Amino acid sequence: MRILGLDYGEKKIGAAICDELGMTAQGLPTIIRKSRKHDWDILDNLIKSYNVEKIVVGYPVRLDGSEGVQCEKVNRFSAQLKKTFSLPVIKWPETLSTKEAEEILIKSGIHWKKRKEKIDKIAACLILQEYLDSIAK
Length: 137
Prior knowledge:
The chain has 137 residues and is α/β, with parallel strands linked by helices.
C-alpha cells in the first residue's frame, strides 16, 4: 500500500511517499504553493503516479495537546483532500517535526540555505515514518 505523507504549510507542502511494502518513507520534491489549482494538480499527479491509497497529514497539536489556529487550517485541507481524491486521510500528530527535521539537517552539516529547501521534505518523511512505525507494531 502506497501512502503519501504531507507536511502542510501556507507557503509550502512537504511531501513523502512510502515504499510498496509500507516500511520506509522517502522524500518527494516540496510543493511550492502558488494557487489552489496548482497545488491540487501536483497532488493529483503524485497520487496517480504512485497509486496512493491513503494520505497522512501532519497535525500540529500544541505541546499540551490542544489545537491551535494551524490545526483549523489542516482540518480544512484534510477535508478537501478527502473530498477531492476520495482517499482515507489520517491526521497524524506532528508536534516539533519541523524542529526535528532542522536538527537532522544541522547535524548533517547542511548549509542554512540548503536546509531551508529541504526542511519540509524531511518533516514530511518524519511524519510518515512515525505513522508507518505505529501501524507496523
